[in-house]
Amino acid sequence: MLLAGFVFGFALQIPAALAQDFPTLLNVTSPLTLAIQPACGPLNSGHAAEINTGINLSATRTIVAFGDSWTSNGANGTVPVPPVMWPPSPSAGSRVTSNRRASNGFVWVEDLANSLGAKLLNYAWGGAVIDNFAWNTTSPLNQTAVQRTDFVAETRLFLLQGKFLDPLVPSQTLYTVAFGINDEGQFEIAGGNWTLAYETYVTKLGELQANGAKNILIHGMYKSHPNTDVLQDKIFAYLRESHLVNGTAIAYVHLERLFSAIASNPGPFGYRGNATCLVSATTTAGGCSDADHSVFWIPGHPYILLRRRTD
Ligand SMILES: *[C@@H]1O[C@H](CO)[C@@H](O)[C@H](O)[C@H]1NC(C)=O
Ligand SMILES: *[C@@H]1O[C@H](CO)[C@@H](O)[C@H](O)[C@H]1NC(C)=O
Ligand SMILES: *[C@@H]1O[C@H](CO)[C@@H](O)[C@H](O)[C@H]1NC(C)=O
Ligand SMILES: *[C@@H]1O[C@H](CO)[C@@H](O)[C@H](O)[C@H]1NC(C)=O
Ligand SMILES: *[C@@H]1O[C@H](CO)[C@@H](O)[C@H](O)[C@H]1NC(C)=O
Ligand SMILES: *[C@@H]1O[C@H](CO)[C@@H](O)[C@H](O)[C@H]1NC(C)=O
Ligand SMILES: *[C@@H]1O[C@H](CO)[C@@H](O)[C@H](O)[C@H]1NC(C)=O
Ligand SMILES: *[C@@H]1O[C@H](CO)[C@@H](O)[C@H](O)[C@H]1NC(C)=O
């Protein structure tokens, strides 16, 4: 909820009285506070900057999400399993299938959809990269490869079935996209081609626009890497063109600034330190007993401000 506030706080508050199509499922209380506000950059910034050129949350009835485990609720374009916990699994969702979240509650885009009473079509999937062909470890051209889901496959699935799931009225539909950390991870293992990753990224954004996307939110990574910083700056430049050329309403969320602020001074946010709660991604055993006050839940999955109590 607070992340949703951070996402849009710079230009838009979550409207108090929305005609909710979909009810919020849980009564959640949180000990956390958003101790810094977003700092908007100009549209002509050379670096990816926090900005919202006019996405109207009051009008948003549908969210279409692409990304990796940061965003995935295990639905993969279908109906999600509610965020039920099955201890000692740390992942809210199904007990017996992979349809889980890397979180002990809703993930950020579900919180956003719940806040707005909007329908969510979520194509994000754990481990996803931008383009399997871009990395030596995942390229189908390289027979040593283990392919992952990518933005290409997620977009293909959405364009195939999304129109049957929702009217996708352009002025009422928000598209969210968040990739990068798995691309960096695969690149670090065996190299690859960032130019291709960038070109695929904007090609897919262009396809979404050609199919009616008029509101696009990009979620920047929570920490800096030289390669992904360059990628994000180039994506930001593309978004600027999208706004100027196509009239697309764009928003960019730069989480690095928020996470840097938390890491340097967690107290004002309500955190007691900024440690990871769990010791492993597969079990809650040995984890902290005070999840609501630590920044990370599953290692590498900083679901700050998004977590639910597990007791
Ligand atoms: C939500 O929980 C809080 C704290 O337990 C309680 O005070 C409040 O009445 C609850 N709200 C609803 C709508 O149930
Ligand atoms: C935002 O959407 C709401 C609901 O459709 C509408 O009443 C309002 O006029 C819109 N605001 C702007 C600035 O377009
Ligand atoms: C295939 O991938 C492996 C790493 O998984 C890498 O060592 C190798 O160089 C790659 N080969 C080609 C032709 O890209
Ligand atoms: C999830 O969707 C992707 C397309 O984005 C597809 O390649 C993959 O097989 C699906 N995975 C599961 C488990 O359904
Ligand atoms: C990655 O693959 C490219 C070909 O796509 C190859 O030129 C390069 O040597 C590979 N890098 C590594 C580290 O294997
Ligand atoms: C990287 O991808 C771009 C875009 O497809 C291509 O033009 C370029 O030749 C590729 N570079 C290498 C080293 O394969
Ligand atoms: C503008 O929209 C078209 C589809 O209508 C798309 O192909 C193109 O990539 C978009 N350009 C920018 C800069 O957003
Ligand atoms: C927060 O975590 C980071 C990364 O582990 C560490 O460098 C930093 O010192 C921590 N900050 C505080 C205030 O504990």
UniProtKB/TrEMBL annotation:
Presence of the UniProt keyword Calcium in the record: no
Signal peptide (residue range): 1-19
A Pfam family: Lipase_GDSL
Domain of life the protein comes from: Eukaryota
Keyword Electron transport annotated: no
One MF term in the entry's GO annotations: hydrolase activity, acting on ester bonds
Keywords associated with the record: Signal
Record-given protein name: Carbohydrate esterase family 16 protein
Organism whose genome encodes this protein: Lyophyllum shimeji (Hon-shimeji)
The organism's taxonomic lineage, starting at the top: Eukaryota, Fungi, Dikarya, Basidiomycota, Agaricomycotina
